[in-house]
Amino acid sequence: MTDRTDIDAEAMRQRLEERRDELKALAETNQEARDTVDLDPVREGRLARMDSLQKQAMSQAADRRRKQELQRVEAALQRIEEGDYGFCATCDEPIGKRRLEVDPAAPLCIQCAEKAGS
């Protein structure tokens, strides 16, 4: 693979590192919302319990999405280190510059992403 001279890998690295730090900070601040809900059925009504459980489930779903994005970001940082950044993980063709500007963690070119349903 040749270098992607049209991509500023250092600027992308900085954006990815900032996003990684944001995701980690969000995970720490939302830990309490994901913890097991322990409600006293005598003091709490049924609707309050249902509301608490729903909030917990939503927080857990958001945490799963955050973890997936964090994995994508860390994989992109690894590709930068290895010199593979900017190339499709499937076909090895260059990923469009605009696509990377919108999503610096994109691992696939637009054609392969469409085929994969991403």
Distance between the termini: 24 Å
**Which class do the helix and strand fractions yield?**
mainly alpha
Work out the oligomeric state of the chains in this entry.
single chain
Helical amount among residues, as a percent range? Answer: 55-70%
Uncertain runs with pLDDT below 50, 5 residues or more? none
Number of strands: 0
Radius of gyration: 20 Å
GO molecular function: zinc ion binding
Organism: Limimonas halophila
Zinc finger (dksA C4-type): 88-112
InterPro entries: Znf_DskA_TraR
What does this structure look like?
Pfam families: zf-dskA_traR (PF01258). InterPro entries: Znf_DskA_TraR. Residues 83-115 form the Zinc finger DksA/TraR C4-type domain. A zinc finger (dksA C4-type) spans 88-112. With 118 residues, this protein is mainly α. It contains five helices and no strands. The protein has a domain at 9-85. It has helices at residues 9-29, 31-34, 46-82, 97-102, 110-116. Helix 1 runs antiparallel to helix 3 (46-82). It starts with 8 loop residues before the first helix and ends with a helix. The mean pLDDT is 86.
Protein traits:
118 residues; mainly alpha; 64% helix; 5 helices; single chain
Brief rundown of the structure:
This protein has about 120 residues and is mainly α.
List the helices and strands and how they pair.
Blueprint: H1 9-29, H2 31-34, H3 46-82, H4 97-102, H5 110-116
Helix pairs in contact: 1-3
